[in-house]
Design a protein that fits this description.
109 residues; single chain; 36% helix; mainly alpha
């Protein structure tokens, strides 16, 4: 996989350790469903140059195709690593479903 949780020489993308404590659930959701909205410019790849640049895929579209509930589970996993209790209410699932429905297909590359 591209990301690691903790330092890794094999990682092609930023380390996700502690990310759930630094970013809001909404920001992480947007980053997963609209990955080109914000680009992390401070990431420095160590080691030999890459043959091609890493590009975060849309995880809610094919070929990955995670559902909104699965995306919220990924976010909860990242947040729970901070040691804080995590709760996801049914209204958040409904809100995430509505948000995904309003993203125009033309915006997906």
């Amino acid at each position: 996989l591209c990301h690691s949780i903790g330092p890794s020489e094999a990682a092609r993308c930023p380390d996700l350790k502690g990310i759930g404590a630094k970013l809001t659930r909404e920001f992480i959701y947007e980053s997963l469903t609209q990955p080109q909205a914000y680009i992390y410019l401070d990431f420095r790849h160590e080691g030999p140059p890459k043959e091609y640049p890493a590009r975060m895929p849309y995880i809610n579209k094919n070929p990955i195709g995670l559902s909104n509930n699965e995306i919220l589970s990924v976010i909860a996993f990242l947040q729970q690593m901070s040691g804080e209790p995590i709760t996801v209410s049914p209204s958040e699932i409904t809100q995430a479903t509505r948000l995904a429905a309003v993203v125009p297909i033309a915006d997906v590359q």
